[in-house]
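A quick aside before the break. I want you to see a complete sequence-to-structure record at least once, exactly as it would be stored in a machine-readable document. Don't worry about memorizing anything.
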Amino acid sequence: MPPQRQLARLAWPQVQEAAQRPGSTVVWPWGAVEQHGPQLPLATDGLFAEQLLDAVLEELAEHQPIWRLPLQAIGFSPEHLGFPGSLSLPPELLIQTVCSVGRQLADCGFQRLVLFNAHGGQIALLQTAARELRQQVPALGVLPCFLWSGIAGLAELLPASERQGGLHAGLAETSLMMHLAAELVGPQRPCDGQPAAVPSGWSLEGAAPCAWLMADLSRSGVVGDARGSDASLGRALAERLVQGWRQRFDTLLASDWPPGCAIRTPAPPEPG
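That is the input. The structure line, written in tokens, reads:
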């Protein structure tokens, strides 16, 4: 990861200059410290957020005005409490944290803040925080997003059973970790979770979700089937995630979002 992309490694005059560039954008990766079954580390979501974001930022053009903050490692994970090591901060504290940091970035002159989240259990919370921050600072574009959402080509890599029921530490996450940090993956490959217990017409996530606790579903902490996990699948998932997010950031950095506030990023100078 180039140090010039990491906001915390810059001196304040460099930050001041960065913030004044047209379309200046800060990305804040969000993870969690929560159980991911017996085979994956507590820091799984944060590791995904950091490594994949850094891979995306390395592919962006040098002139593009985008930097990242350090990882927010502990998030909102009450559904996993009771499994040793899982930690969760109060939702009101996290909303206040997003708003406080966002206001300070806006005071510096930054025009956009992307909340780059890899933990599914805090999607709605960060959306709420983003709306609250935008109301407080209308000139700041705030974009809460989820690592796995809406990326072309991911679904075709996974069987239907995992697309529908592999919600946590299943085939996709175990395979991705085998590719990114194989030394952190244990030997177990659980197949666990009870999505069939959800009432007809309802779901664990999606159109009509239930507020579930992991203890409702799984003894191992896994909801899905990790038995076919493979580093080559993890590599394919990583490639599509990086490609999809690079395209999204390219589009954002070339846009005028938020309306009336940002200015289009100028094209790089012609060589010579």
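Two observations worth writing down. Confidence is low (pLDDT under 50) at residues 262-266. The longest strand covers residues 25-30. We'll return to this after the break.
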